[in-house]
Design goal:
CATH topology of the largest domain in chain A: Aldehyde Oxidoreductase, domain 4
Bound molecules: FE2/S2 (inorganic) cluster
Number of strands of chain A: 29
CATH class of the largest domain in chain B: Alpha Beta
Largest sheet of chain B: 5 strands, mixed
Strand order of the largest sheet of chain A: 3-4-1-11-8-9-10
Strand order of the largest sheet of chain B: 3-2-6-4-5
Strand content of chain A: 25-35%
CATH architecture of the largest domain in chain B: Roll
Radius of gyration of chain B: 22 Å
Oligomer: heterodimer
Structural class of chain A: alpha+beta
Shape of chain B: elongated
Helix content of chain A: 25-40%
Distance between the termini of chain A: 63 Å
CATH superfamily of the largest domain in chain B: Beta-grasp domain
Structural class of chain B: alpha+beta
Strand content of chain B: 5-15%
Largest interface: A-B, 129 and 103 residues
Number of helices of chain A: 16
Number of domains of chain B: 3
CATH architecture of the largest domain in chain A: 2-Layer Sandwich
C-alpha cells in the first residue's frame, strides 16, 4: 500500500506562488478600463445628512463621478439616516487612485446631528436579552452557590478588537451585459454573490465571485460589507469596472469587530475541588440596527459539566456599526472568564490548576445530555504539562524570579465545537491521469488548498502531485463559508465522499468492460494506487479506462453533510494551553516567554500546516491578552486608534518561539475523515493562560483585557 | 424590511443565524439618480516622468506626482507582488529594496525613485524566476507563511536583514524583523527561515 498522503508533512501547494509574488489577491486582477472608487465616510454617529457638496471634488482633475444617492441599493444598515460614525455617504469614482482619494477629501457634508451614545457602559442605556440567547439554567445554581464551601466571584472586561488582516478589504466589480463579476476579498464567495444580488435586486445567477487568494480574514470577510455592494453599485452606475480598496483607517468602520464585553462569573466548589455551581452573566456592545451574538456562554455551560449552572447573555445596543465574528467568536472570551475563575479557585483551594480541571472532567455533554464522540482532554493536559515542564511551576505566586523579573506559569483549557456543514464537491479525472477537485471554498491561510488535496489524493489513490484542489470561485459546487473551523471537516469530507464515488465509478466501468484486464473482477477486490486499479492478478488504470472510453475526462459531483449527528453525539475539539511569562515589576511589562499547547482536534490531515495554524492562533491570543484594544472617542464615535501604528498587534519581537502538539486520534463519528476543526480553538485558552501566568508571577489577578502595564504598577 | 438573502451575521455553536435587517430604498438625498459627473484633465505640472530600474529592467512611467512607489509598482508597472497593508508605514507589507536597502515603498513617492534601482519580490528569484532565492525556499520549507499576504514584504525584509548582518540570534532576527507584521502569526517559522538562510549564506 502506498504511503497515505494524509498525514504527510507537505509544504503548502501555493507556497511558491506566495513567496514569489505570483499569488494574485482580489485588488490585483488586471481588468480593462478600471476606475478607482473611494468611499466618503460620515463624521457623526447619529443623524441625517442635510447637505452634501460635491462641486469641489468634481472639479478635481481626474474625478469622473460622485455617487451620493445609493438609490434602492440595500445595505445591512439604514440608508436613510446615519447609524454609526464612518457610515458611507458618497463614493468618488476617478481615473486614478490619487484623484479618487483626493476627490473624496473634498466632499463636504453637513449633518442634522442627533445625540448619540457609543459607550456600552453609558448610564441609562437599556440592555436586551437577544432572541437567540435565552437565559439558560440547569439544577439549582442559586442554591448551590449559596451553600458552596468555597466561592470565587469575578468581574472581567475585554476591549473591542479589530481583525486587521494584512490584506485590506478589496473589491473589483465588472459588469458585462447584466452579468456581474466580483473579485472580492471574501471568506464566502457564494454568500457574497447572494448578498450582492439581493442588495442590487438582480438574480444570484448573474453574479460570479472570485476569491482564489484571501490575505487573512479571521471573520472580517464573512459578511458582505458596504464597500462590496457599493463597488458593484458604482460600477453599474458609471458603466465601467470599479475597484474599491478600503484604507486601513476605513477598515475600522467598514468591517465588523469583536465586541467589547463585560462579564461576571461565580463558581461554587467543595473544599475537595468539585465545582458544583456556576453563574455567568455577560454583556456585549451591539449596533442598534442589527442583533449580533456569539458563543460566549458555550464553554461556561459545557466545559466542566457543572451540575448547577446558569448563564445570561445580554446585548447593549448603541450607535455603533455591528460587531461580527472574530477568531474564536465569543467562545474565546467566555473561556477567558471561566478559565480565569478556575485558576482563582485552584489558588484558593491550594490545588494544582491542572488537577482541579481533572477533578471536574465530565462524563457526558451535560448541556445536551448526549455522549462525547471523542474527548481526549486528559491526554491534552498530560502531554501539554509534560512537554511544557509544568512540574517546575511554583504554586506560590511571586515566588520565582529571574534577575529583576518575576516569572510565572499559567494554563487554561481550550475547546471549540466541531462545526460541520453540508458541502458539495466535483471530482474530475483527466485523461493524463491527473485529477481536479472543485468546491466554492476559500483559503485565507490555513492551507485548505493543500489539505483537501491530501484527502482527495488518498481517496483517488493518486500521489499528491497528481491532484489539484480548486477553490475561490462561486460557480464551483456549494461550500459553506470559510469560517468557524468548518472547512476541513465539511469540504474535506465532501472531497473524500466525491472522490470515493469517482474511484468506484472507474472500478465499476473497468470490471464491466470486456476490454479491461479487470473484466469480471469483484469490485471489492480492486485496489487503487498511483492511478492504477489492481487485483492480485490484473491491472488497469484511470488513463487506460478513459482512453478506451474515448473520454477526455470523467466528472462526478457529490455531497456530504453531518445530518443529525449533533443530536446524538457531542463533538468538540479540545486543548490545554500552557504559558510562561516574565513581568518587570518596575515597568509593569509582561513578556511571554513560552507557550506550549496540546490539542485533540481529531485526525490531523496536514501536520506541517496544522502546526502553523496552531502557533498562529497563539499569536492572536497574545495580542488579545496584552496588546489589542480599539479605543472610541465617545464624544463623537470616532475611533481614535484606527491604524496599525496605534492599534497594537503582536510584532515578531512580541512573540517567543511557540509550539504545539496534537494528540494522535480521530473522530470517526463526527465525519468520515475523522477531523475536528482547528482554526478557532487555537486562539481559545491563550489569553487566560497568559493572565493566569501573570497571577502566578505577581499575585495580581488581572481581569481586564488587554492587560496593560499600568494594571501591574 | 428584512433582507431575505441569507447572510451569516453570527457564527456560533450549532447555530447559523441569518439575521440582518435593513431599511431599504430610502436614499440619503432625494436627488437625480444619476451620479454627478465631470472630467477635468490632470494638468501637466501635476504629472512627472519617472525612470528607474526595477528588477534589472529599465522602466519609464508617467505618474501623478502624488503616486507612491508602492502604487507605481502595483497600479502602473503590473508588479502587484509588493503588497499594501496600511499605506502608512506601519505594516511592512510593501517592503522592497531600493539601492539594496529595505524601504517601505508606501512611504516613498514614485518621483523620489528617479534613477533608483528597485528590487521587488518578483525580481528575487534567478533565471526568469525559476531558481528561488534561498530565503524564498526556506520560507516554503519552514512554512513561514499562511495567507501569504505579508510574505513578499517578509521575504524582502529578511533578505535585507541577512545582508545587514542582523541575524546573530533568533532574538536579534525578531527585533530586526519587527517592522513586518504577520497577522496570521507565522513569526516563529519566519525566524527559522531567516536563521537557516543566514547560516548557509
Ligand atoms: S503598506 Fe507600507 S508599511 Fe504598510
Ligand atoms: S501570512 Fe498572513 S499576514 Fe503573514
Amino acid at each position: 500500500m502506498a504511503t497515505p498522503v494524509v498525514g504527510q508533512r507537505l509544504s503548502r501547494v501555493d507556497a511558491r506562488r506566495k513567496v514569489t509574488g505570483a499569488a494574485t489577491y482580489s485588488a490585483e486582477h488586471r481588468v480593462e478600463g478600471l476606475l478607482y472608487g473611494v468611499i466618503v465616510n460620515g463624521t457623526v454617529a447619529r443623524g441625517t445628512v442635510s447637505r452634501i457638496s460635491v462641486d469641489a471634488a468634481l472639479g478635481h482633475p481626474g474625478v469622473l463621478h460622485i455617487l451620493t444617492d445609493f438609490g434602492s441599493l440595500r445595505l445591512a444598515h439604514p440608508v436613510d439616516r446615519i447609524a454609526f460614525y464612518g457610515q458611507p455617504i458618497a463614493v468618488v469614482v476617478a481615473e486614478t487612485l490619487e484623484a479618487a482619494t483626493h476627490g473624496a477629501s473634498l466632499v463636504e457634508a453637513t449633518y442634522e446631528q442627533q445625540a448619540a451614545v457609543t459607550d456600552l457602559d453609558a448610564p441609562g442605556i437599556p440592555s436586551q436579552t437577544p432572541a437567540d440567547e435565552p437565559d439558560y439554567s440547569r439544577g439549582d445554581p442559586a442554591g448551590a452557590l449559596a451553600s458552596a464551601q468555597v466561592k470565587v466571584d469575578l468581574e472581567l472586561t475585554s476591549a473591542r478588537e479589530n481583525h486587521n488582516p494584512i490584506e485590506l478589504p478589496s473589491t473589483i466589480a465588472r459588469w458585462q451585459g447584466g452579468q456581474l463579476t466580483l473579485w472580492d476579498k471574501t471568506q464566502w464567495s457564494q454568500g457574497a454573490a447572494r448578498t450582492v444580488a439581493g442588495a442590487l435586486g438582480i438574480a444570484v445567477g448573474d453574479v460570479r465571485v472570485h476569491n482564489e487568494f484571501v490575505g487573512g480574514g479571521f471573520g472580517s470577510g464573512i459578511q458582505t460589507y458596504d464597500h462590496v455592494r457599493l463597488a458593484a453599485f458604482a460600477a453599474r452606475e458609471v458603466g465601467k469596472p470599479v475597484k474599491v480598496v478600503l484604507t486601513r483607517r476605513q477598515f475600522y468602520y467598514g468591517a465588523g469587530f469583536r465586541p467589547a464585553s463585560r462579564h461576571r462569573i461565580a463558581l461554587g466548589s467543595s473544599t475537595a475541588g468539585r465545582v458544583n455551581a456556576l453563574a455567568y452573566d455577560v454583556r456585549i456592545e451591539n449596533a442598534r440596527y442589527q442583533s449580533y451574538t456569539d458563543g460566549l456562554t458555550d464553554l461556561p455551560q459545557f466545559l466542566y459539566g457543572v451540575p448547577n449552572t446558569r448563564t445570561a447573555y445580554r446585548v447593549t445596543p448603541v450607535d455603533v456599526h455591528s460587531p461580527c465574528s472574530m477568531r474564536g467568536p465569543g467562545v474565546v472570551l467566555g473561556n477567558f472568564a471561566l478559565e480565569t475563575a478556575m485558576d482563582q479557585l485552584a489558588h484558593e483551594l491550594a490545588v494544582d490548576p491542572v488537577e482541579l480541571r481533572l477533578r471536574n472532567e465530565p462524563t457526558q455533554d451535560e448541556v445536551n445530555r448526549i455522549p462525547f464522540s471523542t474527548r481526549k482532554l486528559r491526554e491534552c493536559y498530560e502531554t501539554g504539562a509534560r512537554r511544557f515542564g509544568w512540574s517546575r511551576r511554583h504554586a506560590e505566586p511571586g515566588s520565582r524570579t529571574d534577575g529583576d523579573l518575576l516569572i510565572g506559569m499559567g494554563m487554561a483549557t481550550a475547546s471549540y465545537h466541531n462545526n460541520r456543514r453540508d458541502c458539495s464537491a466535483r471530482a474530475r479525472m483527466h485523461a493524463d491521469g491527473t485529477a481536479e477537485v472543485f468546491a466554492a471554498s476559500a483559503d485565507m491561510g490555513p492551507g485548505t488548498t493543500t489539505s483537501v488535496m491530501q484527502v482527495a489524493a488518498d481517496a483517488l489513490g493518486l500521489p499528491a502531485s497528481a491532484v489539484t484542489f480548486r477553490l475561490g470561485d462561486s460557480s464551483y459546487p456549494t461550500a459553506p463559508l470559510h469560517a468557524a473551523a468548518t472547512t476541513m471537516a465539511s469540504v474535506g469530507s465532501a472531497a473524500h465522499t466525491t472522490c470515493n464515488a469517482l474511484r468506484a465509478e472507474f472500478i465499476r466501468r473497468a470490471v464491466a468492460d470486456p476490454n479491461s484486464p479487470l473484466h469480471g473482477a469483484n469490485p471489492a477486490d480492486v485496489r487503487v494506487r498511483d492511478g492504477r486499479l489492481e487485483t492480485s492478478g490484473a491491472r488497469d488504470s484511470y488513463r487506460d479506462i478513459l482512453r478506451r472510453a474515448g473520454l477526455p475526462s470523467l466528472d462526478i459531483t457529490g455531497n456530504w453533510g453531518p445530518g443529525d449527528a449533533d443530536s446524538k453525539i457531542s463533538t468538540y475539539g479540545y486543548g490545554a494551553v500552557f504559558a510562561e511569562v516574565s513581568v518587570d515589576p518596575l515597568l509593569g511589562l509582561v513578556r511571554v516567554r513560552r507557550i506550549f499547547a496540546a490539542y485533540d482536534v481529531g485526525r490531523v490531515i496536514s501536520p506541517k500546516l496544522a502546526h502553523s495554524q496552531a502557533i498562529g492562533g497563539m499569536v492572536g491570543g497574545i495580542g488579545m491578552a496584552l496588546l489589542e484594544g480599539t479605543v472610541t472617542d465617545h464624544r463623537d464615535g470616532r475611533i481614535v486608534n484606527a491604524s496599525l501604528a496605534d492599534y497594537l498587534v503582536p510584532v515578531n519581537a512580541d512573540d517567543p518561539d511557540l509550539d504545539a502538539a496534537f494528540i494522535n486520534t480521530e473522530d470517526p463519528q463526527a465525519d468520515p475523515i475523522g477531523v475536528k476543526g482547528l482554526g478557532e480553538i487555537t486562539i481559545v485558552g491563550v489569553a487566560p493562560a497568559i493572565g493566569n501566568a501573570v497571577f502566578n508571577a505577581t499575585g495580581k489577578r488581572l481581569t481586564d483585557l488587554p492587560i496593560r502595564p499600568e494594571a501591574l504598577l | 424590511m428584512p433582507e431575505t438573502f441569507d447572510e451569516a451575521t453570527t457564527l456560533k455553536r450549532r447555530t447559523f443565524v441569518a439575521a440582518s435587517t435593513a431599511v431599504a430604498g430610502l436614499p440619503l438625498l432625494t436627488s437625480d439618480r444619476l451620479p454627478a459627473s465631470a472630467s477635468t484633465p490632470t494638468p501637466a505640472d501635476q504629472l512627472s516622468t519617472v525612470r528607474l530600474t526595477v528588477n534589472g529592467e529599465q522602466r519609464t512611467a508617467q505618474v501623478d506626482n502624488r503616486t507612491s512607489l508602492l502604487d507605481l509598482l502595483r497600479e502602473h508597472l503590473d508588479l502587484p507582488g509588493t503588497k499594501k497593508g496600511c499605506d502608512q508605514g506601519a505594516c511592512g507589507a510593501c517592503t522592497v529594496l531600493v539601492d539594496d536597502r529595505r524601504v517601505n515603498s508606501c512611504l516613498i513617492l514614485a518621483v523620489m525613485a528617479q534613477d533608483a534601482n528597485v528590487t521587488t519580490i518578483e525580481g528575487l528569484a534567478r533565471g526568469r524566476g525559476e531558481q528561488l532565492h534561498p530565503l524564498q525556499q526556506a520560507f516554503i520549507d519552514h512554512d513561514g507563511l499562511q495567507c501569504g499576504y505579508c510574505t513578499p514584504g517578509q521575504v524582502m525584509s529578511g533578505v535585507a536583514c541577512i545582508a545587514e548582518g542582523h541575524t546573530g540570534s533568533r532574538a536579534e532576527i525578531r527585533e530586526w524583523m519587527s517592522g513586518n507584521l504577520c497577522r496570521c502569526g507565522a513569526y516563529t517559522n519566519i525566524v527559522s527561515a531567516i536563521e537557516q538562510t543566514a547560516k548557509e549564506a
